[in-house]
Amino acid sequence: MKKNLISVWVWLFVAGLMTVPGQALAAEKIRFVFTTVSYAVWNNNVTIGLPKSQGGLGFFDEEGLDVEVSGASGSTDAVKLVGAGRAEASGAVGYGPMVAGIEQGMPIISCFADGLKNKQFIVVLENSPIKSLKDLKGKKVGIYSAGSDGVYFAKAMAKEVGLDPEKDIELVPIGLGAQALNAIKEGKVVGGAFWDTAIALMEVQGVKFRYLSTPGVERIVSGGFAVNTQWLKNSRNTAVKFFRAIAKNEVFRKVNLAASIKIHWKLFPQTMPTGVPEEKAVKDMTHVLMSRIQGNPELTEWKGKVGIIPKELWQTSMDFFFDNGIIAKKVPVEKAFTNELIAEANNFDMQRIIDMARNYKSVRKESVRGGSFRRAAEMESGVREPAIDIEKLEVLPEKKRAGVIESRKHLILIVLIFIGAMGLWEALVVLCQYPQYILPRPSKIAISLWIGLVTKRLLWYEIGYTMAEVLLGFFIGAGVGLILGMWIALFKVAERIFYPYIIALNTLPKVAIAPLFVIWLGIGWPSRVAIAATLGVFPMLVNTFTGIRNTEPELILFLRSLSATKRQIFTKVQLPNALPFIFAGLDLAIVLSVIGAIVGELVSGTHGLGSVIMQKNFSLDTAGVFAILVVLGVMGSGLHAIMTRIRKKVIFWAKEEMVVGA
Prior knowledge:
Elements: H1 2-18, E1 28-34, H2 44-47, H3 59-62, E2 65-71, H4 75-83, E3 89-94, H5 95-103, E4 108-113, E5 120-125, E6 139-143, H6 150-160, E7 169-173, H7 177-185, E8 191-195, H8 196-203, E9 209-212, H9 215-218, E10 223-228, H10 229-234, H11 236-255, H12 257-267, H13 278-293, H14 299-302, H15 311-323, H16 333-336, H17 342-345, H18 350-358, H19 398-432, H20 442-455, H21 459-490, H22 492-506, H23 510-521, H24 525-549, H25 553-561, H26 566-604, H27 609-618, H28 622-650
Parallel strand pairs: 1-2, 1-3, 6-7, 6-8
Antiparallel strand pairs: 3-10, 4-10, 5-8, 5-9
Helix pairs in contact: 8-13, 11-12, 11-18, 12-13, 20-28, 21-22, 21-24, 21-26, 23-24, 23-26, 24-26, 26-27, 26-28, 27-28
């Protein structure tokens, strides 16, 4: 009994230490996924609540939450991630993919609205001969991606006007932003099936659209926030806190839209258009966001009801999805929609948020995303460099001097060709008056590079993030490829059994399996490293296998005649013979690892250069996209040059023509 009392006192003492006044408890972690692979500004009803230390309003901190945000390529992929438990919540998912997932048994439900009106439309240019949806028969209509909810709604609208959605219209993925606008303007598609903010983002470029819809679509709410039902059951209080923070975000945005845009840009500066005055950028983004929030109630009507999904729309929406073939059987509406969190989520001082929004003053300062960057200031020391002693200078041999001179000539020629090409490009864009979102001038690209690398230094963190993924993926992929290549080359049984499978796996398109890695490994860096490693495995494996098998049989027979062991034959003959091939594999693997990391970031980017590409593309900042491509080109060339230098140091005895790919 005495021993038990001592144990109780020990536990009470430990509990007391853990609840010392002023000591913060660990924040509850929530993984939130957007339905686009970029931090598009229309997601600021989530982002502005991020911590004050990052530049946000700190509403998630107030609720004791640590929210990690990332993106998916469309509502379908977002639904899969939430359903698989790789994310706790997503928004704003299209209800079409959501109810389709519920029909298949996915544990997912919508418990908070993102606007109270339809967000999906088919748009054509204002001067297009397409006047109604029936005129789309036999035409191509653009969509963001095959996994976007535009697919469901385009087919539903076609069916409602009497068209066969499988035969009468062709849906073509054209992406978003500049590439989508260009595809529509050039007539590659007659129009596009997009959501409200994506359409408005193209309209700020001066393009006018004709909106096409149907009464059936207009009667439903097309999307909202969705959560994993198992998480909701086990962590209901956490869910309430999360949506209370979202409700605060919504109220703040409703009162001070311009401030919410600037806060989002402060959090994610890569999403702010470059080369555009801030006043115009804010005006453009205000137009974009107004397309989303203009259907929301006034604050007086909204009190206590932020995020509510009107019950009269539950069955209407479900009937719509069933009637248009999005689901094969009707799903009970209680499995798809719930308002059980709304009352508790609205339990906050709305007037405090309104006053905060009205009195908010934006403070301009450099972003600290991913860590701060400090400019190194070098002071003049006043110490002069020592004079050069000409007598001690090494005189280069004649042949070496000739090589240096030849290298200088090549360098000068490369520079001159580059200057000429850039000048021709600049003149072509100016004379032909190409819009900047189609083909930017090199000078605009240079300005974007300067801003990203020198003025604001925002790209350095992204470069480091991508480089870390590349190197980690390279080392894993190259290591696995080297071991497998040696194993298969040295054991013929392994070659006969496993080599056909390896070849078959190598033929699979890596872009197609990238979303699977995201579902298996989550939306963080492991999935992107896995994609980079996958691309690096096969060139390493094949080159190692070929190098070992390329050893002259006579040398092996000679060593065997001298009673050499298998290990001695491998280390003295086969491995040295394979080294040129292995280094060729390393060279290919490191370049392909760059591609793999970027593909991973495009599929589920949170950080890195691939994520920046998507952000720039969404904001129609094509010059910014080109700037990132320049950085990637330099990165790939630099890694290739480093690998070449290592190769020359390690296998100095090998001639250039011996090295495959040299």
